[in-house]
């Protein structure tokens, strides 16, 4: 495997969403994570939200103990989450914005506006050996700020591109894609590792997977939905196949 293989991080949050709809123990996100590993996921992503609407503290504990692939722990930049991250020391911590009223992570983090606070916030995480990733819009000032605060990784928000595709706004989709392409090259030129994700599907993954600077995609909701129809293992394998095909 070359160093430049595009990695696939599978986000298992929505297995927990289905479990929590009934409040019981199944479907078990940890079982999904192990299955995803076996299907070729290079990492597992889980977002512990402040309101615990899907992933729970116990899920994070279980994942941190049981995974053989890296855990990418998504969290808001709060003291509570920092303490949890420092307890588990996951491979990666991805900082995301969080609003209680949103259905999903709607935009990227405003790094430029909070540069000093975030620089202090990530320092102990870096010292603990976590790779710090910042989830941001494909926006030059945000990328520059992420670089200045010492993040190792940025994850570019692909939501606007995917929404434009789904709603048939193809000119906008193409403009978003061009912006993502330009900004992934820019971030790479600063020495940042570039990841991307949010809203990706079989229809939208390939143009993003083809960006040579992108090293990892994080994909969740679509894969968990697709698993209803074809099973989680084949759903992940098909995503992997499309990524490899786009990568050439
Ligand atoms: N990357 C980040 C930073 C996210 O917050 C999410 C959603 O939790 C994803 C990737 C995955 O998005 P989706 O579930 O739409 O594939």
Automatic annotation (TrEMBL):
Domain of life, per lineage: Bacteria
UniProt signal peptide: none
Annotated catalytic residues: 47 (proton acceptor), 74 (proton acceptor), 198 (proton donor)
Site residues by UniProt (Transition state stabilizer): 155
Pfam families, A to Z: PdxJ
GO molecular-function terms, A-Z: pyridoxine 5'-phosphate synthase activity
Keyword Ribosomal protein appears in the UniProt entry: no
Binding-site positions, 1-deoxy-D-xylulose 5-phosphate: 13-14, 49, 54, 104
Name of the molecule in the record: Pyridoxine 5'-phosphate synthase
NCBIfam families: pdxJ, PRK05265.1-2, PRK05265.1-3, PRK05265.1-5
Record: residues binding 3-amino-2-oxopropyl phosphate: 11, 22, 199, 220-221
Gene Ontology annotations for the cellular component aspect, listed alphabetically: cytosol
One of the GO biological process terms: pyridoxine biosynthetic process
Main subcellular location of this protein, as a coarse class: cytoplasm
Location relative to the cell: Cytoplasm
Catalytic activity, as annotated: 3-amino-2-oxopropyl phosphate + 1-deoxy-D-xylulose 5-phosphate = pyridoxine 5'-phosphate + phosphate + 2 H2O + H(+)
The species this protein was found in: Antarcticimicrobium luteum
Keyword ATP-binding attributed: no
Entry similarity comment: Belongs to the PNP synthase family.
Complex formation: Homooctamer; tetramer of dimers.
Alphabetized UniProt keyword annotations: Cytoplasm, Pyridoxine biosynthesis, Transferase
EC number, as in UniProt: 2.6.99.2
Function noted in UniProt: Catalyzes the complicated ring closure reaction between the two acyclic compounds 1-deoxy-D-xylulose-5-phosphate (DXP) and 3-amino-2-oxopropyl phosphate (1-amino-acetone-3-phosphate or AAP) to form pyridoxine 5'-phosphate (PNP) and inorganic phosphate.
Pathway connected to this protein: Cofactor biosynthesis; pyridoxine 5'-phosphate biosynthesis; pyridoxine 5'-phosphate from D-erythrose 4-phosphate: step 5/5
């Amino acid at each position: 495997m070359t160093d430049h293989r595009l990695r696939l991080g599978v986000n298992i949050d929505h297995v927990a969403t289905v479990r929590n709809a009934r409040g019981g123990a199944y479907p078990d996100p940890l079982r999904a994570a192990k299955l995803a590993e076996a299907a070729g996921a290079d990492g597992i992503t889980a977002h512990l939200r402040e309101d615990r609407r899907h992933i729970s503290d116990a899920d994070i504990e279980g994942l941190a103990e049981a995974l053989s692939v890296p855990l990418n722990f998504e969290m808001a930049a709060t003291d509570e989450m920092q303490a949890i991250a420092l307890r588990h020391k996951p491979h990666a911590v991805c900082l995301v914005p969080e609003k209680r009223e949103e259905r999903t992570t709607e935009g990227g983090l405003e790094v430029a506006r909070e540069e000093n606070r975030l620089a202090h916030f990530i320092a102990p995480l870096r010292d603990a050996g976590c790779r710090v990733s910042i989830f941001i819009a494909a926006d030059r000032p945000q990328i520059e700020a992420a670089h200045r605060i010492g993040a190792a990784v940025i994850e570019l928000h692909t939501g606007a591109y995917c929404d434009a595709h789904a709603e048939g706004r193809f000119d906008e989709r193409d403009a978003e894609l061009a912006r993502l392409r330009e900004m992934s090259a820019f971030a790479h030129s600063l020495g940042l590792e570039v990841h991307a994700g949010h809203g990706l599907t079989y229809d939208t993954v390939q143009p993003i997977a083809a960006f040579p600077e992108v090293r990892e995609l994080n994909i969740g909701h679509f894969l968990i939905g697709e698993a209803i129809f074809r099973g989680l293992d084949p759903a992940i394998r098909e995503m992997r196949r499309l990524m490899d095909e786009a990568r050439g």
